[in-house]
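Supplementary notes for students who missed Thursday's class. We covered one full example, reproduced here. Read the sequence, then the structure, then the short commentary at the end.
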Amino acid sequence: MAFFQNCDGVGRREVLRAGVFGATGLTLASYSQLAAASAVNPNAKGKAAIFVNLNGGPSHMDTFDLKPDAPAEYRGEFQPIQTCLPGVMISEHLPKIAGCMDKFTLLRGVSHSVAAHELGTKYVNTGNRPLPSLEFPGYGAVITKERPGVPELPPFVAIPNSAQRPGYLGVKYAPMNTTSAPQIGQPYKVRGITMSGGLTVDDLERRRGLLNQLDRTFSDVEKDSQLLDGMDEFGRQAHTVITSTKAREAFDISRESPEFAGMFGASQLGASCLLALRLVENGVRFVTVTNGGWDTHRDNWTALKTRQLPALDEALSGLFNGLAARGLLESTVVYVTGEFGRTPKINQERVGRDHYPRNMFMILGGGGIRGGQVLGESDETASMPKHEGFSPDDVAASFYHTMGINHTFEYQTSTGRPVMIVRDGKLIPELFV
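Structure (token representation):
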């Protein structure tokens, strides 16, 4: 997978590494029971989720919120096309998404004030405005804690890595990173899933016996350490996953028919979305797919039409249509976002658009979210929400709701500080059937 460097000099690889634990960021956390009954509604329609992170900040005006009647210094080069929803128009370079908009809700007029990549990414990956004094857990960590999964698979998988941190919940709720992206039609080997170098299951069992002896030797050391707790969880779950045929098959996208895989296109983003579908189908609760290259300060329209939008068009349409075809859309929530939008007014010197959190789009679909609608509206130049708009906190509260998680439930940090899952968000009632 290509790695793109954002304008602040921080490469996407480094941003993602900062969001995981240690050198690998791997955890295969298992859990045996739900949290307190007040935190979880087991009857919620959302059973699993796929979070697509468009790293760098996609231009809302050139994708899902075009303004063809705006002055020339705003409107850009692309033309709008009609979608399957009467009167709803999106970019001409997203024709396949235009044909499946009945399967999700498009949110326009999402607004915040955090214009830096790292902080904006933390905001939209947690639903909480970042604080210097507290690291909030990402969606995947909360879902890992609250919703039990199958023992043969990790509950939280990141393709290839994730900006979502476990925060104050502790390292045992961090993601298992694949560290690479799959390719359509090819077997996929994942570090920690596929044994290499001639290693056999018998070899693994012998090594596990040795590690168990070492564990007993150090069992009295720092019994209350979150780090040791997380590593212990990793060891147990890693052994289960590596020896599981179900896990190896779930990660192998080459098992898909050419016809089904073809819906996702040939890009690594499409292959990653196909893998995400297979994982939730087999019992993984939360999958992040990260796609970079959206930091288009320069040559915005060339980058979008030749590289970014064709891949996005095939990948997202493939994901929504594929989930629907497999009967998974009603139980799988899909959440698509960048960290912010881009300036409505064109940077003529660089032929691009700059960071702009005051107005952006987000997409939510599946898991009981009503499809086929657009909520929110921006003003004539897509500079601000036309009315009240939505915050990332509101979208987070609504996302947790459809997953059956009470966003107002309070956790406690390691120091005993009570913190709500989402501090400031409120539900968007129009999202729900």
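Commentary. The longest helix spans residues 300-325. Confidence is low (pLDDT under 50) at residues 12-37, 195-201. If anything here is unclear, bring it to office hours.
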